[in-house]
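FORM 12-B: Structure-to-Sequence Request
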């Protein structure tokens, strides 16, 4: 009791006190207070009792120590177990209330656990899938290589991520994303597989809707770009003849004149006008006049080079800008166009219309370094052709080329 109450000090005191008590008895016997003793026996008893008291005290002490340590360890273990049960309950609630489907299988893929979310998504209760393989959900629409890749990854002890197309108990299909991980024991051996899965039907629908919206948007953008291109074409081309209009001419001629001056290269301008066009309109009507304009424009376009700029300059006037062309070359080309126009066969009311062109030509740098100046000189040369009887080619201030 002293050892239990006062530890080492208590044990020492109790041993000393017990030994002193035995010694007191011996002394009392020697003093005649007790029957005459047998000294040999008495001393042996005293020594024996003292040793026994010491052993008893030591055993009591060490037993007490072991008991205390065991109690401390037991308290710690209880506390740790309680904490583990607290964490386990949290984990259990988290799994049970998880918004994702959770499936645990053995190494052969047989289901050992599913959470309530799994049952809600698939329609299968826990008892219906226990011991079954997840292939009961297979809708036959998942690419065959997906399952093969999954098992190869899991067999290597790695985590696998991917998507399946599954079938619910009621037969409806749904897409599902899954993360499947191996579960290992303390020795690192795989004992189970954990699958965390999510129904991605809404996400797929949203992606599909976005895809459709993007396709529609792309179509609308293409339509707008097409309209813009058409508007640009309309803004730069004459709607009747398809040739460039004066707006485009002003932009293009300015660039070509800068290049002409920078590179010191020639540039010629030909202006052509349909002779007696007003008479054609008055006699045969504007529809016939438009037909004549279209055919003359087609002729002019067919005789233009890739670098040339063919424009409808006015009502019945056409203009051809020829970068890199000398006056001599431009004059020959104008003459070829004049002859081909005179050979056009335009029938109307049983008659063949005679369509001729008059031409005026000017060039840079001979007749000016600005586009407007060169056009003015070519226009004046055209008037000379008109005044000289029409159906002629005239170069500004040069000898006329006869018809």
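FORM 12-B RESPONSE
SEQUENCE OUT:
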């Amino acid at each position: 009791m002293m050892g239990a109450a006062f530890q080492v000090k208590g044990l020492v005191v109790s041993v000393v006190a017990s030994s002193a008590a035995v010694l007191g008895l011996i002394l009392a016997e020697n003093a005649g207070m007790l029957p005459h003793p047998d000294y040999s026996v008495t001393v042996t008893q005293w020594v024996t009792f003292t040793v026994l008291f010491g052993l008893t005290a030591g055993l009591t002490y060490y037993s007490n120590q072991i008991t205390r340590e065991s109690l401390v360890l037991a308290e710690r273990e209880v506390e740790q177990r309680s904490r583990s049960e607290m964490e386990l309950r949290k984990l259990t609630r988290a799994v049970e209330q998880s918004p994702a489907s959770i499936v645990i299988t053995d190494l052969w893929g047989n289901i050992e656990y599913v959470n309530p979310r799994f049952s809600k998504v698939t329609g299968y209760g826990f008892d219906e899938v226990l011991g079954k393989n997840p292939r009961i959900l297979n809708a036959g629409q998942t690419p065959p290589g997906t399952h093969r890749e999954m098992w190869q990854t899991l067999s290597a002890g790695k985590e696998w991520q991917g998507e399946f197309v599954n079938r619910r108990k009621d037969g409806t299909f749904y897409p599902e994303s899954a993360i499947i991980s191996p579960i290992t024991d303390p020795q690192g051996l795989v004992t189970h597989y954990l699958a965390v899965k999510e129904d991605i039907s809404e996400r797929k629908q949203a992606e599909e809707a976005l895809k459709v919206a993007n396709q529609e948007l792309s179509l609308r953008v293409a339509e707008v770009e097409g309209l813009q291109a058409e508007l640009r074409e309309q803004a730069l081309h004459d709607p009747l003849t398809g040739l460039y209009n004066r707006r485009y001419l002003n932009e293009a001629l300015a660039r070509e004149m800068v290049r002409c001056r920078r590179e010191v290269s020639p540039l010629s301008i030909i202006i052509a006008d349909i002779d007696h066009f007003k008479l054609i309109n008055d006699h045969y009507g504007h529809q016939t006049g438009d037909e004549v304009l279209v055919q003359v424009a087609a002729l002019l376009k067919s005789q233009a080079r890739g670098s040339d700029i063919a424009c409808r300059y006015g009502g019945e006037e056409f203009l051809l800008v020829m970068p890199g062309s000398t006056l001599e070359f431009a004059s020959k080309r104008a003459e070829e166009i004049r002859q081909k126009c005179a050979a056009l066969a335009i029938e109307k009311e049983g008659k063949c219309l005679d369509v001729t062109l008059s031409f005026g030509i000017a060039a840079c740098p001979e007749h000016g370094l600005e586009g407007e100046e060169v056009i003015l000189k070519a226009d004046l040369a055209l008037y000379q052709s008109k005044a000289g009887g029409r159906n002629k080619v005239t170069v500004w201030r040069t000898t006329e080329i006869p018809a």
